[in-house]
Design a protein that fits this description.
Blueprint: E1 2-4, H1 5-8, H2 20-28, E2 33-39, E3 46-58, E4 64-71, E5 86-91, E6 101-105, E7 110-111, E8 115-116, E9 120-122, E10 125-127, E11 130-131, H3 166-169, E12 175-180, H4 191-202, E13 219-220, E14 223-225, E15 237-246, H5 256-264, H6 272-284, E16 289-292, E17 300-304, E18 310-312, E19 318-320, E20 326-330, E21 333-337, E22 341-342, E23 355-362, H7 364-373, H8 379-384, H9 393-408, E24 411-420, E25 428-431, H10 432-439, H11 445-454, E26 458-461, E27 469-473, H12 484-495, H13 515-529, E28 533-534, E29 540-541, H14 543-549, E30 579-580, H15 585-597, E31 603-610, H16 635-643, E32 650-657, E33 659-661, E34 670-671, H17 674-687, E35 693-696, E36 702-713, E37 720-729, H18 731-736, E38 743-748, H19 750-756, E39 772-781, H20 786-797, E40 801-810, E41 819-828, H21 837-855, E42 858-859
Parallel strand pairs: 13-24, 14-17, 28-31
Antiparallel strand pairs: 1-12, 2-12, 3-4, 3-6, 4-5, 6-11, 7-8, 9-10, 15-23, 15-24, 16-23, 17-20, 18-19, 20-21, 21-22, 25-27, 26-27, 29-30, 31-32, 32-38, 33-34, 35-36, 36-37, 37-38, 39-41, 39-42, 40-41
Helix pairs in contact: 5-6, 6-9, 10-12, 11-12, 13-17, 20-21
Length: 861
């Protein structure tokens, strides 16, 4: 809301010499957020001048200019810029003549757009200034003719003296403060509301501009309020006031003081009747509309739109109306969208002489739905949907009638209508102890009552035996005050937020991070410490991405050609990506692609996030099942909504591409491969005390020969559970995303790993005795997984084995066809003694025996 200071000062006493900055600071104290300060972008010497002569001079380009002599100061006096009192000025307009008083911008003046005025040679003359039009001064869009002050009703009696400051005369020296009004304080979308709040902030006396209007009686105009389809059981219109003004001159110019105020308030001046309606709306907060009475067919009916009904609104758009739309109609049909915008068929124009003024009270929900349905926000709908004072409509209608009489030369008619439902406020129960209980303050009952009465509430005490209970009735302009918490907020705002103590809250014991949160954070810290960069991507994917990357780790057990089911959004941000992701890999590949296009090719990106698993068949929720707004759904509907929420398991995934180690002197480079992805997956699992079991596998997004399926055991000797996949991505997939080289990746079901991880991981004491190391080479069939052999050797070697790892996989000379030699590095240690070589060898041979029994392995000498 933008409020010119002079306009504000008409309703509340501003501090002497008040600046916009000071007014902003005062309004901030009562809860408004300052936005900006608005001023006209005109400065320098701009004066009233009198045209002495205007000689037309045709030019070779077909244009005719006027070479004018203009008096810009009293005879013999120095002009505002220090120059002569008479100036020669070239002007291309022709709507003036000798004797007219005009606005002259002298050299040194600066107009909007940083247009600087100086003496310039043009059309064979030196033009020593410029005669200004309304558009050049930001007072309107008229650029065809210059401003003739007498046509605006300005002469020497009201300030249009030769040489006088034209900025002050036209209101161009005004400034306005702009504040951000929250949705619950719609009353502040008016000078009346802001002035009242300024009075609350400073204690300055407030004069209600609505109270100064003397409302006259008017009857006889047919108006019917008819609502056959109320929303939430509330009628669409609860009041309608109509007044008739006859004999107006719609061609009269809007007074400069009104134009300047409208412009500073952000409203464009259009025509006198429209400008007056906007002016009253900004002043009192009540939207108004003016109909050309001659274009109305019969009386007015406020009703819901009929099926198939159409309306051309003032923005010249032909709109199909919805049965929920509240419309203003005459006997021929709809003539306006109630509370939103009028219609073309009854708009006022320069031929209008008789006007019907409308000031109505509409249901906020109905107006808000109509404005959003037609994508038609307006100044009127912005106010109606936030709540308009139902008791100000009569004063607003009368105020507009008075201004039409005063400025447009009209005559107020006795014809009109007043249909207003009785305003019945609802008292709010407030226990005064609740105020200090919520705010942590020590306000006295007198301070609380004083604050409530200051904002217009009436306070009545409760039962005699319960002095702590008050019944507070909000004023008509505060429809937002419906709960005791609203009243508590008002008390804090009026008494002062500075009275609320700043106390650092103490977290109750036992309410830190949950186990799942701690482990998720530990996994993220561990993997990023290992050199990965964590990213976050949008969860929206396309059908092609779903089919390419599958449903994550579980996709290893499905056919690569099987379609991937996914949740589709009803209103996607991007029509190309309407599905919710089943895997984190599409987003990561997209992030890699964007980085690679910018020259960053050596990447190791990781993401922690949720995926979305479609609900079970029959649990889907169609758009027709979504409950209506504005009322609490039934318990059965809430249960259906809960059942339709998809499962959202936590995943972690990473993509590695480019060089793992850059080339250095004496050291060659090394590219990321499947082993790096597998190591990273083990790092994440180890962070949550889970141990992965690796098996050769397949996945639709991974290279068929370089894919590992990752399993865990939920309990000792239990079945393996698939929790992830790691390996190298398909070359075709990498090429389709314009990546160079190879790309390795892994994806883990982190939520499942956390769920089955031990509550307290077992750790043993560190032995201080020396270790015994031995190597072991076993010959097995080439189709036997090396990881399975390693597991059997570990279990067979007994408790003395501290560590075992594969160091070589040999296939070639010296081995039979279909065989391979696996070499393991074994480390043995005892907790209570130094091992003898014989004990270590005996344990190793036990592992060999276990491998021989399981796979037919032979010890290679």
């Amino acid at each position: 809301m933008r409020v010119p200071l002079s306009w504000l000062g008409e309703s509340v006493e501003l501090a002497p010499g008040a600046t916009p900055e000071q007014v902003h600071a005062d309004l901030v104290r009562v809860g408004f957020e300052e936005e900006s300060i608005r001023r006209f972008e005109v400065s320098g010497p701009v004066v009233v001048g009198e045209v002495l002569s205007a000689e037309p001079e045709p030019q070779s380009n077909g244009k005719t200019i006027n070479w004018c002599q203009v008096r810009v100061a009293s005879e013999g006096q120095t002009a505002a810029d220090g120059g002569a009192d008479v100036r020669g000025i070239v002007c291309g307009a022709h709507n003036f003549g000798p004797g007219d008083r005009v606005v002259v911008t002298l050299p040194g003046a600066v107009l909007p757009g940083d247009f600087r005025i100086a003496a310039r040679k043009t059309y064979g003359h030196v033009s020593d200034g410029m005669i200004a039009s309304a558009r050049e001064l930001s007072l309107g869009e008229d650029h065809e003719g210059i401003i003739v002050l007498s046509r605006l009703g300005l002469d020497e009696t009201n300030g249009a003296v030769i040489g006088a400051d034209a900025l002050a005369l036209l209101g161009l020296d005004e400034s306005a403060v702009e504040i951000n009004v929250t949705p619950d304080r719609g009353y502040a979308f008016s000078v009346r509301g802001v002035a009242r709040e300024y009075g609350h902030a400073t204690g300055a006396p407030f004069t209600d501009p609505a109270a100064a209007v003397s409302v006259a009686e008017a009857t006889g105009f047919p108006v019917v309020l008819q609502d056959e389809a109320p929303i939430r059981g509330r009628a669409g219109a609860t009041g309608f006031i109509a007044r008739v003004v006859r004999g107006i001159d719609a061609t009269r110019p809007t007074p400069p003081w009104m134009v300047s105020r409208l412009q500073l308030a952000g409203v464009r001046a259009l025509s006198l009747p429209v400008d007056i309606s906007n002016y009253v709306m900004l002043e009192l907060g009540q939207p108004l509309h003016a109909y050309d009475l001659s274009k109305l067919d019969g009386g007015i009916t406020v009703r819901r739109a009929r099926a198939g009904e159409r309306l051309q609104t003032l923005d010249e758009q032909d709109r199909e109306l919805h049965p929920e739309d509240l419309v203003i109609a005459d006997d021929a049909g709809a003539v306006g969208l109630a509370g939103v915008m009028g219609g073309q068929s009854t708009k006022t124009d320069e031929t209008t002489t008789d006007v019907l003024v409308e000031a109505a009270t509409f249901d906020p929900v109905s107006i808000a739905r109509t404005a959003r349905r037609h994508k038609l926000p307006s100044e009127a709908s912005k106010r109606f949907e936030r709540g308009v004072d139902p008791l100000v409509a009569a004063a607003a209608a009368q105020r507009m009638v008075d201004l039409l009489v005063e400025l447009a030369g009209g005559t107020a008619d006795d014809l009109g209508a007043t249909l207003v439902a009785e305003w019945q406020p609802t008292p709010v129960r407030l226990r005064i102890a609740r105020v200090n209980g919520l705010l942590g303050t020590d306000y006295t009952p007198e301070e609380i009552r004083g604050a409530l009465e200051m904002i217009g509430c009436t306070v009545a005490l409760g039962a005699a035996g319960d002095p702590d209970l008050w019944f507070v009735t909000p004023p008509s302009w505060r429809s937002d005050l419906t709960r005791s918490a609203d009243l508590v907020e008002e008390v804090a705002r009026i008494v002062g937020y500075d009275r609320i103590p700043s106390v650092l809250p103490v977290a109750p014991a036992g309410r830190g991070l949950t186990r799942a949160q701690r482990l998720r954070r530990r996994a993220a810290n561990t993997v990023t410490a290992a050199g990965f960069n964590e990213v976050q991507n949008y969860p929206f994917v396309s059908r092609a991405q779903l089919d390419a990357f599958g449903s994550g780790p579980s996709d290893a057990a499905t056919e690569a050609s099987a379609p991937v089911s996914a949740l589709a959004l009803a209103n996607p941000l991007d029509g190309e990506a309407p599905f919710l992701r089943r895997s984190l890999l599409p987003g990561l590949i997209g992030a890699v692609q964007r980085n690679a296009s910018r020259g960053l090719t050596d990447l190791s990106l990781v993401e922690f996030g949720a995926v979305f698993v479609p609900v079970a068949p029959g649990a889907e929720l169609g758009t027709e099942s979504v409950p209506p707004l504005g009322e609490r759904p039934a318990d059965a509907v809430l249960a259906q909504l809960d059942a339709a929420i998809p499962e959202q398991p936590l995943r972690v995934a990473a993509v590695l591409t480019g060089l793992a180690e850059a080339k250095q002197p004496g050291l060659g480079d090394r590219a990321y491969d499947w082993a790096d992805a597998l190591d990273a997956a083990r790092t994440v699992a180890g962070a949550v005390a889970a141990e992965l079991v690796v098996r050769q596998g397949s996945h639709r997004a991974f290279h068929p020969g370089r894919t590992a399926e990752l399993f865990v055991r939920t309990e000792q000797d239990a079945e393996l559970e698939l929790v992830g996949v790691a390996g190298e991505l398909l070359p075709d997939l990498v090429a389709d995303h314009h990546l160079h080289g190879r790309a390795a990746a892994f994806e883990l079901d982190l939520g499942r790993l956390i769920a089955i991880a031990p509550q307290t991981p077992e750790t043993g004491p560190l032995s201080t005795y020396p270790a015994a190391t031995q190597d072991l080479t076993l010959v097995v069939g080439s189709d036997v997984p090396a990881g399975d052999v390693l597991d059997v050797v570990r279990s067979g070697s007994g408790s003395l084995l501290e560590s075992a790892r594969i160091v070589d996989d040999y296939r070639g000379t010296g081995l039979e066809e279909g065989q391979k030699a696996l070499t393991f590095a074994l480390r043995f240690r005892a907790d209570d003694r130094t091992l003898r070589a014989e004990e270590a060898s005996e344990a190793k041979l036990a592992g060999v025996a276990a491998a021989e029994a399981a796979f037919g392995a032979k010890l290679r000498e």
